[in-house]
Amino acid sequence: MTDPRQGASGEPEDARGAGGGGFGPPPEGFGPAHGTSPGPARGAPQSPPRVPSQSPSQGIPPTPPPAPPGAPHGGFGPAHDPGIPAQSVAPSSFPPPPLYPPGPPTALAPPPGPPAAPRGPRDVPRALGLALLDLSGLGIGHALLRSWGGCAVALVSTGALALVALPADPDGVPLALVVGWLVILVLLAAHAAARGLRTTRAVPTVPVLGLALVLLAAPVLAGFEYDAARERAQHARLEKQLLDRLGEADRTVARYETSGYAGHESAFSSALTAYRDLSRDHPGSAAAHKVPARLRTYYRTVGAPFGKGDYCEAVDPLRHLLTVPRTMGTGRVPEDLAAWPAPRLATSLYGCGIGGLGTKDPSTAEYHLTALLEEYPDSPEAGKVVPEVEKHVSFSLKDKGGESPCDATSSLQTLADQATSVAKADGVPAATVAALGRQADRAKGGLPTKTWNCALDAYHDKDYAATQSRMRDFTARYGKDGRAPLARKYVIAAQVADELPAAGKVKPTTSSGGSITVTVRNDSPEAVEVLYTGPVTGSFQLGGCESCKRYEWADTLNPAFKPCPSGRTYPSKTLRLPAGTTYFLHKPRSGSGLGGSPATDTVKVRGGYTYTECAYTAKGFGSSGIDG
Q1: Cis amide leading into 167 (omega within 30)
Q2: pLDDT tens for each residue of 159-179
Q3: Dist. CA 161–CA 183, nearest whole Å
Q4: Domain 516-627 belongs to what topology?
Q5: How far apart are CA 317 and CA 262, in angstroms?
């Protein structure tokens, strides 16, 4: 038997033997005879396709060949008797019985899809180009592969990054967002490279690789541009912050423009520090360029008292302005501003010092004039100090058209002290020292007369307490002056006039006696001081009378009351007075322990009489009587 694998082409495969469970050879006359033309027999079935043989050892019955065309459904055609030609067999109206029992129905498999296209060769440059195109962030690699999902992911991630990053923020993009974007691009690039290795889609390698290299520069250039934009944003933010600091300093200066520098030194120093920091730390900023103009406002505000003529108030602000160039640093203060305070400070020191000459606060003139001579000895103002002191001394010494005696006394004393103090300033020329010394001597020389006149004015003004004080001061200061004895008389007269105002009409003199005898007795157990003024002014003391007592006040009201009765020895003093009215004042001596109030008496002394003045004490009152 011929092997089925070696069967002739175009002929049906030989049937297997009966032991194999196959079909026998076709009946004779089936198909064309050998040597005849291969045309099909009319009405004869076509030969089935060749089926590979199976080994009987597999235990699986062979699949029967498909029915020939025209065979009835569900069978294999009529059975043929081996010797009978197929053409002579009459068709049966019933199908033949099946050779095998029917099995379960076989499920029909879906029709297979079209065969997969064969993979092309691995193209590494193309894959690299596609990956680089995706690294550009535009998803072009996936677009060339027609992978629209990957392209969309790339575009969305890049767009999200752009939305967050633009406009450029000074603080930049959050690092996590950048890292996430890079991870997405790397994954997309890897995916595009993997698909690009064996894709059958026509993707030209060289143009893709060139385009990838060009587009890969896009994110790099975008990164540089973003850094530049971020730096510009940082610069803009810094400029705004610096301008805010400048504005705060400006507001501080403006806030105290009215009240001035005094009392707000720390606020002005804070503003100046802000100007310095802006100029020193950010010299190229817009705020730093505005600082010179702000300094002019600062100088004008701090030095405002000078413009108002308030020289004493201007000294400290101008001294502060002298320190501004050192605080700001070299070259940061315009030259005209740096030179502005010095001459004005010299003028202020002079103006304030001269204004304090002869005043009650001598330190004002002493401090400022001394500072002027020490700090600006060559200034025009320094040369005016001595003439100004001389003018003040001359004015105070004038008897008419000048100051009042009391004011002149105070001024001359102050001027003498001030001239002496200023002459001790460091570095003062000897000529200036000598000139100031002469003016001090002039002032001191005029003091006695002005002091005397001041005390006299008090007496004339009936200010007897001031008279006593000034006359005592005169005698204490100028005890060798020829007017000192009269000054003591004025002290006595002022005491009498203070208790007996009529006595103030009489000017005391240094006269010492007269022809009329007046005896003063003390009918009191306590010592008394007797003061009198009139044609003669004087005082004396009488000791207490040990045998005397204090009278009852009611007794003194009796018209028959007479103190100093005869038959008793009293402490007494005999005076010789000229004719005229003499005013007596009896004052209990302090420390006697008995107390009592001063008593007064007025005696009109006339020639040819002898007078007795009796001092006594009533309980609760001091009193005196006259027995003439």
Answers
A1: yes
A2: 887 777 777 666 667 778 778
A3: 13
A4: Immunoglobulin-like (2.60.40)
A5: 7
